[in-house]
Amino acid sequence: MFLKLKPLGFLSSLSIFLIMSCTSNNVDLIITNATIYSVDADFTIYQSMAVANGKVVALGDSETIQSKYKADNIIDLEGKPVYPGLIDPHCHFLGYGLGLRNAWLAGVGSWAEAVDRLVKHQNNYPSDWVLGRGWNQNEWDVKEFPTKELLDKAFPDKPVLLTRIDGHAAIANSKAMELAGFSADTLVTGGEIVRVNGEPTGVLVDNAINLVRDLVPADSKDDKVLALDNAQQNCFAVGLTSVSDAGTDLADALLFDELHKAGKLKMKINVMLNPTQENYAHFLDKGVYVTPNLSVRTVKLFADGALGSRGALMIEPYSDAPGTIGLQLETTEKLTAVSRKAYESGYQVAVHCIGDAAARLMIDIFEEFLEPDNDLRWRIEHAQTIHPDDLPRFGRLAIVPSVQTTHATSDMIWAVDRLGDRIKYAYTYQDLLKQNGWLPNGSDFPIEHINPLYGFYAGVARQNMDGFPPDGFQMENALTREQALRAMTIWAAKAAFEEDVKGSLEPGKAADFVVLEDDIMTAPNSKLPSVKVEKTFVNGELVYSIK
């Protein structure tokens, strides 16, 4: 349904009718003897919940709910905790699903080990193009970009393209570069072909990746359908019921819609469109597009690259590379023009900004369109390094800092090398939250793990999976547990203008909820990453159960 007016969240008349039709007191499902965190305005905790027609009908104590409502399906949770369905407000849902078939190169100690893993994967799953993702030189004994020699030896006749963990750098072998027609004087705006003594090493940064990536055969529709099914099953298993796909082409948005309407895709998706003419013609020029499972009202942009590959755009040079300040991936003129197009179409703008210069650039552009106290909810994605002079501008212009707390605990060991003293202005989640009183927290998967409880843990404990550092990283910017839960439920919904239809368990809202084996609001920090999801429900339907 295309809407010219920006919906701030609503219940359809059909939904209200269906809920009111439950006056017979017969409902589809009753959850009883539970600890239900509603995540409403008062953070109310209930024992029981009645569900009908995919919506929450009522909450209360177990005796009251069971005396008032009747259901054939009653689940006694024996005190287990229940939370609203978890929402990832920034990820790459389809990309994650497609990537499951390729080699995963994270967690190795050297480039040689990564290539060995790649060879084994290719032996088991041969393909014309050798693809993989996840390498991270900052985790190796030698913390330097790799070079293509080992790839050329292992794959002399097959093209190879391996994407770095952050997606903002890749390495190609000689065969791939030959197919791309590289020459000694090839240059790329907003990207870099890393060279030593004038010769390409194989490493491509940001926009330079496209020289090779554009040659990789396109995925078929059948490939994507399978990928989406695999992705949603994995996401349901970690408690996710909604995601925001950050950077979507028209064909993929239409595929989401088709599969939703056919009942084959049950993961709710908020789409961030790539700024293409076909997306403009099909979506922006017609207004926002909203269905019960799909929301299309956002345009996604990239201002800069990533910190790990030194592509993040900084105001001052990198502390460990004084000759560079990073990369601006799009011209200021284009960033402004797309923002204007979105503004005129009633669409939200969400911009990838890692470096402090990128954030300042986009806030300057946003200021051309945003009045104080606006409710357009334009977003700075990642908001990773913010100059202190720019921090108050988030509040003044009501700009949403969309963060990923696991980035802090993944990056903290080496980020200080990149930033030096500026590290105190990075990953400042509590300071950012204070600007508007709320923020959404996601994962950016597959850059980080899909499990949202890892983000909850990183937000409150500020420790990595090894419990380092013992006292937490820059704990003044840790989130409280209530803030962390809100950031991946109601605030994540709010970031997509969906807080009136999901994100909390309240009468009339979607019955999206998750049952955990232990209570993350009270469990020790050390246990948080290992808490298992027991059940996941979408619109009152059980979509995952551990047993």
Concise summary:
With 547 residues, the chain is an alpha/beta fold.
Q: Strand fraction band?
A: 15-25%
Taking the sheet with the most strands, its summary is:
9 strands, mixed
Termini separation: 38 Å
What is the rounded Rg? 23 Å
Q: Report mean pLDDT, rounded to a whole number.
A: 94
| CATH top level label of one domain | Alpha Beta
CATH architecture of one domain: Alpha-Beta Barrel
Poorly predicted runs are: 5-23
Number of strands: 25
Number of helices: 18
The backbone outline, from C-alpha atoms, is globular
Q: Which superfamily, in CATH terms, is the homologous superfamily of one domain?
A: Metal-dependent hydrolases
Helix/strand structural class: alpha/beta
- Which percent range fits the helix content? 25-40%
By CATH, the topology of one domain is TIM Barrel
Plain-language structure description:
The protein is of the alpha/beta class. Among the domains are: 129-213, Diaminopimelate Epimerase, Chain A, domain 1, CATH 3.10.310; 303-479, Alpha-Beta Barrel (TIM Barrel), CATH 3.20.20. Helices cover 30% and strands 22% of the residues. The protein contains 18 helices and 25 strands. Strands 1, 9, 16, 17, 18, 19, 20, 21 and 22 form a nine-stranded mixed β-sheet that branches. A six-stranded mixed β-sheet has the order 4-3-8-23-24-25, with helices on one face. Strands 10-11-12-13-15-14 form a six-stranded mixed β-sheet. β20, α12 and β21 form a beta-alpha-beta unit. α11 crosses α12 (356-366) and α14 crosses α16. The longest helix has 17 residues, at 221-237. The protein is globular, with a radius of gyration of 23 Å. Residues 5-23 have low confidence and may be disordered.
